[in-house]
Amino acid sequence: MPSSAKIPLQIAGYDILPLSLPRLASFPQAAIHYLYVAPHQPKLPTSTASRSLFLVNVPFDSTETHIKHLLSAQVGLPAGRIEDVQFEGQRRKATNSGGALSIKHKQDKNSKKRKRGSSKIALDDMEGAELPSTWDRDLQSNGLTAVVLFVDRASMNAALKAVKAVRKEQIELVWGEGIEDKVPALGSARYLNHHQLTYPDTGQILESTNNYMTKYAAKEASQARSAAKQRQEPDEDGFITVTRGGRTNPAKQEAAQELAEKQKEKQKGLEDFYRFQSREKRKERAGELVRKFEEDKERVRKMKERRSRFRPE
Fold this sequence. Notes:
6 strands, alpha+beta
């Protein structure tokens, strides 16, 4: 592998950060992984883009702990300046302040538009209702991207400057050095632990199931209230949306009918205008027929005169 001195500092607007991968018993050779860093510039601007960094080609074993340790302890950014780390494909609930990132996988099936009138309930925000994970650590895909959200823009700029300084000074960064005991182990230990997590505790499954059913019932009740409201309120044209479910009580139905009558009164002037146009068109058509009749009548009269003058020899 080429040394970091022969690697360009930047390519296509991205700062290149070489990472030395730790040697393994199964692969004792030295290897370098290249991480590409740039300010986050999404196609659709967000409130957090100005204080975020975009990472390309993160290692497959990356975790939030890895990224925070790399930028803080190894690159030199003060601790506590990173607010969140989101890997491509992750889905997290956004906070009210807009601080959390929302990155959806390109192949997310839930992003498809629902058909009009569908009675299915969207279950995207079922926090606390998921079944326990059977893995103690997620692995990323090759070439995956990530977004690092900082507490402010100054911290983001400081991290970017620190990355540039590390490259210029040719400081070697060893991926994952110093956090070996802070993240779940890979290799055989990962599969041994997976065997234990494959069958979660009964109490955890029961808790997640109860949370799921509670949230589902709440969403179902909310959908029913929305449908009932649509049955009671006419639209701008005075029509009432037809939805599934029982009819409204007579009092509410009478009020809705009265509102619909008011809407018709508002449209009355416009209807008269169109009726006036129709009447004028009928008059013009009748006048045209009379004119043609008079022309035909005159033509017949002239033919009769010519016939009366004709005298055979």
